[in-house]
Amino acid sequence: MFERTILLNDQLRDNRWFLTVFGVLMAMLGGWLIGNFGVMGAVMTVGAPVALILVTCILMEPKIGLLVYIHLSFMLGFTRFLLTEAPMGLAMDSVLMLTLLSVFLNAKRMNWRRLRHPVYFALVFWLLYTILELLNPEAPYKPAWFYHARAFSLNWFYMGTIMLVMPITREDIRLLIKTWLIWSFFAALWGFKQQYIGLVEAERMWLAAGNAKTHVLWGQLRSFSFYSDASQFGAEMASATLFCSFRLFEDKGVLKKIGYSILILIFFWAYAISGTRSAFFVLVAGYPSYLFLRRDPVLIIRGIFVAIPILVILLFTHIGDSVYQIYRIRTALQPNADASFLVRLENQQKLKAYLRSLPFGAGIGTSADTGARFSPNHFAAQIPPDSWYVEIWIETGVVGLTLYLLMLATIIGYGVYKVWQIKDPWLFRLMIALLANFIGITLMCYSNPTLSQFPTCTMLYIASILFTTGERWDTKPESQSVMA
């Protein structure tokens, strides 16, 4: 070791001139960047070496890229707090592509046979259809395809490829779940800060830019935390509530039950202050799905006794109406009395007449914000979809919507088949929790584009591969120790 240290010192001494010149050039480059780009130049000067190290780490180990991508998914909403526009979306795409490249560079460690999987075939088939949509003659601006194709099919395909072939351990799964819950916990706290303490200047500016009409109703703020909007925040909080409820049912330790009970209260109230009525259906669909998947008569009876009183109170009483958040949840069960829901139905009737002669839709990228940006005069851009499935219907037609729903049905159906084959108790309970959560979000997407929004879409893409390949981590029940 001592000889190696001497040799290293000699090498540094011999190359001192090179290091000196390199240091001077880097200092000059940093000065030029700061002088021409100000704060952004300083960020680039400091960030470039860090980015280089990060890129190297991702290329050496794709798991690092996956974790970075997950964290960036949660951090995307923080761009509203920045003084200058940050290309966070580009950074996320870059990390995902680097992770995929890392998978190929480390091909010998990957299990490529897992790509022969029904869910992967469904993802590939849907991807091919969305690629063929480039030929749709109804699309007025072809480059807009790239803006929506990522959310429609590309990101799910990339994530599916990575998750299937990469060697993931049980500890990795635990880390993914903990990362999601920790981010959700901080999101809940930030939502409470918005609701009960106040907004920061960047958030007030965001509301003033036109978002107040959907986030301040009758003088009540719909908290959105650091997510894209209140609907996304509500979906995430309802999803976390559902998952922690399942863990509360299953865990035996007193301390763990207390911990999950506290988290349930935090996440549920965070969902309530979001004012997102449709997120209630994450619970309405996910809860019975879990009981069905669990196939435990005693647990089903307990679950029914917990759920029925809550539904009766919400449907047939006015208890808690003085609290705006509770009143808002109650109205989710009365859609025919909701003016916004009736407007959505009216818009869908208009779209039905327009799309009757367009079985392949108006083209990917013609509706929602992208359509308003690139083809504002197009009919598809003038009616808000207000739903993920309606957006797919508009852009890919009834053929595309049918294929997409068949893909979701394949994932859910195959997931049910696979989780029921798992022998390991801990793994079985975890996978049915992820599957039930997935079912809840897919139902909610009738009213919101949650399946296309970060970070929910990232976690759902990952979950869809986990619960459909759960046998990868299965062990015999008698060899399984008690695990959290």
TrEMBL record:
Ligase recorded as keyword: yes
TM region positions: 17-34, 40-59, 66-83, 89-107, 119-135, 147-168, 261-287, 299-320, 392-414, 426-446
Keywords tagged on the record: Ligase, Membrane, Transmembrane, Transmembrane helix
Domain O-antigen ligase-related, first and last residues per copy: 263-405
Localization annotation: Membrane
Domain of life: Bacteria
Gene Ontology MF, one: ligase activity
Membrane topology: Multi-pass membrane protein
Pfam families: Wzy_C
Recorded GO CC terms: membrane
Chief place of localization: membrane
Tagged with keyword Transport: no
Protein's name in the database: O-antigen ligase family protein
Record organism: Spirosoma agri
